[in-house]
Amino acid sequence: xSDNDVMEPMIHEDRExxxxxxxxxxxxxxxxxxxxxxxxxxxxxxxxxDSGIGRAVAALFAREGADVAILYLCEHDDAxxxxxxxxxxxxxxxxxxxxxGSKSFCEQAVAxxxxxxxxxxxxxxxxxxxxxxxxxxxxxxxxxxxTFQTNFYGYFFMVQAALDHLKQGSAIINCTSVTMYKGxxxxxxxxxxxxxxxxxxxxxxxxxxxxxxxxxxxxxxxIWTPLNPFGGQKPEDIPEFGKDTPMGRPxxxxxxxxxxxxxxxxxxxxxIGQVLHPNGGxxxxx
Length: 286
Known about the structure:
By secondary structure, this protein is α/β, with parallel strands linked by helices. It has helices at about 10-15, 50-65, 75-90, 105-115, 140-160, 180, 190-210, 230, 255-265; strands at about 45, 65-70, 95, 120-125, 170-175, 215-220, 275. The chain has one domain (about 40-275): Rossmann fold (3-Layer(aba) Sandwich), CATH 3.40.50. It has a seven-stranded parallel β-sheet with strand order 3-2-1-4-5-6-7, sandwiched between helices. Helix 2 (about 50-65) packs parallel to helix 3. The protein is globular.
């Protein structure tokens, strides 16, 4: 797919990806414990890092000693806040706006990261979009292409762009979803992309193990982020969001971020191709 084939983000259709600055109540992103230097001297590139899970991961990585490249689509206010959070932890940060569905943007983002920090150790593929539809016939060709472009092609392009800079001890962490395991009748295209991400994670882990690069994934359940209230779920469903989990509530981004930290640092040195499941106790995804 050339950049001429890249479809415009669907931010005008349903307000996605949404602004955390406009969300009430605000998601909990703040790390819950002091850092212990587990990522000291490392550089992480995180897509979709302006808000939600991506912001929480950026904050936690910074607390553990990493400099962070914050990739985001167009939410400049949220990205500035995340940059301030990273810098508040005493680490360096850059914010790079653009569409991960564009191969050339992914290449430019990695180049800017190397220019700013001189290295890249951790790639977190997190950016995503979803659009609920009751009937598969309501999913337009444009929506199907756009959802795969962001959720899957973006991951693929980022790995391609980053690989020359990753080395022994580096880590790639892909964000999949509980919907890959349990299914979602209203998110057919989204859940299909998450299935592709899981297969990609497992296959890529085997392809890169000889290089000493570990590839794993995280499959969150319902997490309170801008994605759902800004178009990812029907408005009438938001009051019940997450209440169908065994824990009876949605998760918070800072309850997911430690899974990414575990997979990014040496604590998970004997794991590749695995997926962690912070999902409120939904055992159908294990």
